[in-house]
Amino acid sequence: MKDVLAVGIGGFLGCIARYLVSVLFVRLFDEPTFPFATLTVNVVGCLLIGWLGTLAESAQLISPPMQLFLIVGFLGGFTTYSAFGYQTLTLVQDGHSLTAFLNIAAHIIFGFGAVWLGALIAKQF
Length: 125
Fold this sequence. Notes:
Elements: H1 2-28, H2 36-59, H3 64-78, H4 81-93, H5 97-123
Helix pairs in contact: 1-2, 1-3, 2-3, 2-5, 4-5
C-alpha cells in the first residue's frame, strides 16, 4: 500500500507541476502555435529520468520507494506524451504538417538527448 501511495502522491505533484508549466507558457506566449510547454516538460522529464534512473541503478543513491515516488509517480505525471500525441494530431488536422513533423523531431531529438545528458550528469557523482 505504501508503494501505491508513493506513486499516487508523486503523480499528483507531477500533474500539478505540468499544469503550472502550461500556465507559465500561456502567460509568456499569447496563443503559441507550437506546443512549447509540452516539449519543455517532456525534455525536462527525460533529463530527470536519465539522471535519477542512473543514480538509482549505478550509484544506488535512491531507495526503491523513492524511485516509485519520483520516477513512476512524479515524472509519470509530469511528462505528457499523450498530450504530445494529441497536439501533433491536431497540428496535422489543422494543416500544419511541417510544424507537426518538427514537433515529433524535437521531442525525439531533445528527449533522447536529455535522457543521455541526465545519465552523463549522474555518472559524474
